[in-house]
TrEMBL record:
Gene3D superfamilies: Vaccinia Virus protein VP39. O-methyltransferase that catalyzes the 2 O-methylation steps in the ubiquinone biosynthetic pathway. Signal peptide: none annotated. Its EC number is 2.1.1.222, 2.1.1.64. The lineage of its organism: Bacteria, Pseudomonadati, Pseudomonadota, Gammaproteobacteria, Chromatiales. This is Ubiquinone biosynthesis O-methyltransferase. It comes from the Bacteria. It is an enzyme of class 2 (transferase). It comes from Lamprobacter modestohalophilus.
Length: 254
């Protein structure tokens, strides 16, 4: 069966083809996605803490996100989606390649998790009138073509009072040196070609694209030790960073 994938103005077909070729490796923690697995454990803890703070949940509860509707945009093989589902959330994971959706569905079935994986773009969800308590936009914005259009669509998917978490790489000389030259070409932590400097995203560009109805609640830099491969928080957002936004509770849905 030939591969199927979606097309839209904000989707780069070269990015689609690249990640289709790696789809079968998503859940190999020793394979090319090992940084994602380590990063996922780190960022899932951050998301858990932030969502519990925003929605007044107990972070020590076994399933603190129970009842929350979460969208994982660009879910890949489902690594973050499964983490959120295990915390009790109702998770929708979207992708633009059928290979990744198949990988996600099969692994969720193996794991006994009920996750709604869909071959869909953010624009399609907007057109369907979908909204969510929390939108996860992790390591996606640096792979789209029409960044303003994509961010505008993502913003509409957040319910009034809901949140969006964005994780990406800054467009700075240091990020080029660390994330592209260092991680891809020297250390081999990521396959060459994973990131392109011109498509990296500055924090101000995120804020402009999401609009005034999404208010910044938190931001932090993220660093990784070249010796232990452990992730940690840092005040510097010059390379990797995460930002938490909340939609005005009084805002009317688009």
């Amino acid at each position: 069966m030939s591969a199927v994938h979606l097309s839209a103005p904000d989707i780069d077909p070269k990015e689609v083809a690249y990640f289709e070729g790696l789809a079968h490796r998503w859940w190999d923690e020793q394979g090319p996605f090992w940084p994602l697995h380590r990063l996922n454990r780190f960022r899932a803890d951050y998301i858990r803490a932030q969502l519990c703070r925003v929605f007044a949940r107990s972070a020590t509860a076994k399933q603190p996100l129970e009842g929350l509707d979460i969208l994982d945009i660009g879910c890949g093989g489902g690594i973050l989606s499964e983490s959120m589902a295990r915390l009790g959330a109702r998770v929708t994971g979207t992708e633009i390649t059928d290979k990744n959706i198949r990988v996600s569905q099969i692994h969720a079935a193996w794991s006994g998790l009920d996750i709604d994986y869909r071959l869909a773009t953010a624009r399609q969800l907007v057109d369907e009138g979908k909204t969510f308590d929390a939108v996860m936009n992790m390591e996606v914005v640096e792979h789209v073509d029409d960044l303003p259009g994509f961010l505008a669509d993502c913003a509409q998917l957040v319910r009034p009072g809901g949140v969006m978490v964005v994780a990406t790489i800054n467009r700075t000389p240091l990020a080029w040196l660390m994330a592209i030259i260092g991680a891809e070409r020297v250390m081999g932590w990521l396959p060459k070609g994973t990131h392109h400097y011109r498509k990296l995203v500055k924090p101000d560009e995120l804020m402009d694209g999401l609009g005034a109805q999404l208010v910044l609640l938190d931001r932090t830099g993220v660093r990784v030790s070249p010796f232990t491969r452990a992730f940690s928080f840092t005040s510097s957002m010059a390379v990797n960073y995460m930002m938490l936004f909340r939609r005005n509770a009084e805002a009317t849905e688009q």
